[in-house]
Amino acid sequence: MTQLQDASIISEFINDEKLFKASVESTFESLDTNNDGFISFAEMAKELISLKILKTSLDVDSIALSDAELKELRRDIFTRFDRDGGRMVDLEEFQEEMREMLVAVANSLSLSKARDPNAKL
Fold first, then answer.
1. What digits encode the pLDDT tens for the residues 105-120?
2. Which Pfam family name is an example for this entry (predicted)?
3. Shortest CA distance to 82 belongs to which of 23, 30, 39?
4. Sign for the pseudo-dihedral over CA of 61, 47, 111, 3
């Protein structure tokens, strides 16, 4: 699948409010392990560690970050979601940040394709 097609699929997903909302709510519920309606830093950090998202998605294997740097990176990610600074992420904050992140990914894929029309994902 080309990057432009991937960007289009992401855009369609974001614009399908019903599908996007259902997906975000499901993800939110899986992260809210204590079912209090909020995601704490500990809940999000645990998921980031367990999925090894920092190593696979952000390619930090090649950067060799220290434990302190990884913790700071997880805090930075959490802060992006915690828009009101309340030290907890509610569903609305989570949905807004997920939308922004997916738009950024789609835009990046579109730009990459524009730069290199033969690029594959």
1. 888 887 765 555 555 5
2. EF-hand_7
3. 39
4. positive
